[in-house]
Amino acid sequence: MAFICDIEGMFHQVNVNYEHRNLLRFLWWEQGDIERSLVEYRMTVHLFGAVSSPGCANFALKTTADDFEEECGHDAAEFVRHDFYVDDGLKSVPSVEQAIDLIENTKTLCKKGGFNLHKFISNRREVIEAIPVEQRAKEIKELDMTKDLLPIERALGVQWFVESDELHFRAELKDRPLTRRGILSTVSSVYDPLGLISPFLLKGKIILQGICKDGAHWDDPIPDPVRMQWVKWREDLGTLARLKIPRCYKPVDFGEVKSVELHNFSDASTSGYGQCSYLKMTDLQGKIHCTLAMAKSRVTPSKPITVPRLELTAALLSVKISSFLKKELKSTSRKSSGGTASLSEDMYPTIQDDSTPLLQIEFSPFASTLNRISGEEWTQRKTLQMRLLEA
């Protein structure tokens, strides 16, 4: 189960050092009367819009976690340190009891630092009922927990259907001109931080790259062949609303997890390259469940690059994503492996042996990163079908 929360007026809870307040001076007309003389003021707290505010407020929040960890508990301090994005906190725990206990301890910890947690929402009604009404999210303050459905919430830009505990994508198809500017605006409007729909978005990016290669200006109408491709892609964009992805990697009816493995695949072509990472979980009864954890796709650079080099670039991207996931998932993965398809035989040694001259000369930026996964953990196929051997 999961819950999210927010720090009320976070920036305004952090004071500015006295010697720095002159940096935040501003002029003001009393009562908005421009006929009066201007009055000079200084901000005593950090303000919204200043570049320095997020960093200073975040430092104050993390310092609060360090100062009161012993008093309020390690779990609450770790939640504040690692699961807050500026003023938004997101957390997933195994049980309702753990969630309620963590929320209470975190509220106490934040209060000691002058921060107030509010706008709580969870996919479990028992957790919501344990939170005072005034500290709940606005959308659920008036809900009848016995019959009303939980609302749709935006969690860091992603739509979370709280009732079904699923992630959805809903693109707003605004009328934009069929120009390079309009196409860029449409492609960029779809927010997908985990890369769950990256294969679909890649097609839109390829269309945009083709327009740029043709030298089209920002407001030039696109040619008819490209127009047909774009209209088809834009129509398919509306179907994303039917895509439903479970938020939790572990199914509800899955038993106690015995082992977790992280499997990474990467590939490249003349149009684009990318990777995908899967979690493979095994429970005590031997039941196996695999789920997509994260993916990334990118268009091939306009500058001519050989496919083998692109494959190594995709492998590099895969290793970076693997390292990121192991860090964010608190290293729960006991095994990590990488697979790359269509890798030529003369390139494969560069992954296994960092003494290969080709790696030292042409791919030296890749060496230290690729070596995070040992040679024995890499697998390769010369066919388009991927195969992965466990490490």
- Proportion of helical residues: 25-40%
What class, by secondary structure content?
alpha+beta
Compute the separation of the termini in Å: 31 Å
How many domain modules? 3
Please summarize the sheet with the most strands. Answer: 5 strands, mixed
Description:
- It is a single chain.
- It is built from 12 helices and 15 strands.
- Strands 13-12-11-14-15 form a 5-stranded mixed sheet.
- The chain is 33% helix and 23% strand.
- The protein has helices at 53-67, 69-72, 74-82, 96-112, 125-129, 180-188, 198-213, 224-237, 307-328, 348-352, 357-361, 364-370; strands at residues 2-7, 25-29, 38-42, 84-85, 88-92, 117-122, 152-155, 158-161, 166-168, 244-246, 257-268, 272-283, 288-299, 335-341, 378-381.
- α6 (180-188) runs antiparallel to α7.
- The chain is of the alpha+beta class and 391 residues long.
- It has 3 domains: 2-13 and 50-165, no CATH class; 180-244, no CATH class; 253-381, 2-Layer Sandwich (Nucleotidyltransferase, domain 5).
Give a brief outline of the structure.
This protein has 391 residues and is of the alpha+beta class. The protein has 12 helices and 15 strands. It folds into 3 domains: 128 residues, no CATH class; 65 residues, no CATH class; 129 residues, Nucleotidyltransferase, domain 5, CATH 3.30.420.
What are the SSEs and their pairings?
Blueprint (H helix, E strand, L loop, with lengths): L1 E6 L17 E5 L8 E5 L10 H15 L1 H4 L1 H9 L1 E2 L2 E5 L3 H17 L4 E6 L2 H5 L22 E4 L2 E4 L4 E3 L11 H9 L9 H16 L10 H14 L6 E3 L10 E12 L3 E12 L4 E12 L7 H22 L6 E7 L6 H5 L4 H5 L2 H7 L7 E4 L10
Parallel strand pairs: 11-14, 14-15
Antiparallel strand pairs: 1-5, 1-6, 2-3, 4-5, 7-8, 8-9, 9-10, 11-12, 12-13
Helix pairs in contact: 1-3, 3-4, 6-7, 7-8
